[in-house]
Amino acid sequence: MIKSLSVNLKIFRIEENLLAENERLAEENRQILGKKGIVAFNLMGGPGTGKTSLLEKTIPRLPESLPCGIIEGDVAGSLDGERLARLGVPVVQINTGSCHLDASMVRKGLEHLPLERLKIIFVENVGNLVCPAEFPLGTDKQVVVSAVTEGDDKPVKYPLMFQVASLCLLNKVDLLPAVNFSVEKFGQNIRQTNSSLKIISLSAQSGENLNAWVEYVISQCS
Amino acid sequence: MIKSLSVNLKIFRIEENLLAENERLAEENRQILGKKGIVAFNLMGGPGTGKTSLLEKTIPRLPESLPCGIIEGDVAGSLDGERLARLGVPVVQINTGSCHLDASMVRKGLEHLPLERLKIIFVENVGNLVCPAEFPLGTDKQVVVSAVTEGDDKPVKYPLMFQVASLCLLNKVDLLPAVNFSVEKFGQNIRQTNSSLKIISLSAQSGENLNAWVEYVISQCS
What angle do CA A68, A72, A78 make, to 5 degrees? Predict the structure, then answer.
């Protein structure tokens, strides 16, 4: 009773040009950041997987020797930017009006951050498990934030995101007893999609295993 | 410490043409469905909000006088289509390769469903709280599925989705005691975005208040 159709999307030349132009700008961003000695992390994931909460809990745990700034991408509003600015770090809130940040938006964000005195930039992408994966930003590490409340099938249903990721944070593990989620199955699905992808299971809410992620961030800056 | 930037996206003529062409095809779908006396629902929402689980629990509760078919949209794979086909209803699984279903894909789906003997079609869109809102499909009712695990701020962060919706299903209310979510605040955020949007709070997992949604579906078919 099931019929499967694959739809071949028309690829417009203008779309190819858009992606090529984005790639060029991302490379420029990479060089700008590299020259300043700044390490940048692109946090991606579906809506409500806890990207902002993770940053709220991560930033106070970083040593003073690693000052950070934030580029916060949202379709609309500045709720998340306001939450993060309360930590006393410089935040640029970007309203994309669309489904992802691109490299030109991040460039604008960089122009408004005090790069001379930063060592880390966290980019929080629009909550979307599809489109941000197609637009590299020039960041050093791509971090996909998944949540146990989303289900363990996400790596096979949204493969590109897990393929471009350097690290997977599996968030909200404090809710494991309440949801139908197999950590083992999630790991199998990850390996099927990107066999080298490292997973850190944690909870921004309870603080469980948060240090493993903080240590990962610090290790990238040495 | 916060700076807000609004990024004006370049709108390409080809993109305008794409949306206009989609609108035209959606209107044709609407007429095809109308002539057959079929009521169609477009289920949208972020990844893992429980759209497939809702359909699994809804379909067995519908009367035999309302036979239904399903168009299942996913970036990749057929996990959800297989789950739904187990219910014994006709399912067309569409792999979009991209971030949303469009009206031409739904047209292809309709061609593979036995329209003569159906009264309801459920379209399950790609898990994405942004892009599907921009692409009407010709369905009668647009249903946004939100989950309490996503947080109560989603209506103001993803306004277009809540503006195009005819109904909001607030799913996973069985998890309310375990998460930081205010039903009152969510309601306020909905009213701020779309003052006439009806909300049904329920749990596909526990079955709580599922009948309110089933009754809504039946009421649309009379």
Answer: 125
pTM of the model: 0.95
Split into its structural domains, chain A has a count of 1
Q: Is residue A167 part of a domain?
A: yes
β-pairing, B167-171 vs B91-95, is: unpaired
Sign of CA dihedral B95, B148, A148, A125: positive
Smallest Cα distance from B18 to chain A, Å:
11
CB-closest option in A99, A147, A175 to B99: A99
For chain B of 222 residues, list the mean pLDDT of each consecutive stretch of 10. Answer: 69 70 97 98 98 98 98 94 96 93 96 97 98 97 98 97 98 97 98 97 98 98 91
Say if the Cβ atoms of B1 and A158 lie within 8 Å: no
CATH number at residue B80: 3.40.50.300
The H or E element containing residue B212 is: helix B210-220
Which residue stretches of chain A are H helix? 13-36, 51-58, 79-85, 103-111, 154-157, 159-164, 183-193, 210-220
Query: Domain for residue A5, yes or no?
Result: no
- The parent domain of residue A150 ranges over 38-220
| Residue A44, domain member (yes or no) | yes
A97: left (phi over 0), alpha (psi -120 to 50) or beta: left
- ipTM of this complex: 0.93
